[in-house]
Amino acid sequence: MAKEHTDRTTLDLFADERRPGRPKTSPLSRDEQLRINKRNQLKRDKVRGLRRVELKMNSEAVDALNAMAAERGVSRSELIEEMILAQLQAR
């Protein structure tokens, strides 16, 4: 029996069909989940004594930082922090 989308009498026959894709595990919308996760991340960072600093750089500098961070096995933010601290201690 084919399913007819306009058929109003047999809708209950197809009510239990499993839909393909990832199952919904949270009752919250994706936007709400992202907002809560970001809030929790900011709380964790605050407990760890971290503060957010944002800067804009040209792509060549970012590529060089990425390469240097990969060589040292650290994240780019850790590398930038090391470089800034070294510069401040040299003063």
Automatic annotation (TrEMBL):
InterPro entries: CopG, Ribbon_hlx_hlx
Domain of life: Bacteria
Record-linked Pfam families: RHH_1
SUPFAM superfamilies cross-referenced by the UniProt entry: Ribbon-helix-helix (SSF47598)
Domain Ribbon-helix-helix protein CopG, first and last residues per copy: 51-88
Region named Disordered: 1-30
GO BP: regulation of DNA-templated transcription
Skewed-composition ranges (Basic and acidic residues): 1-20
The name this protein goes by in its record: LexA regulated protein
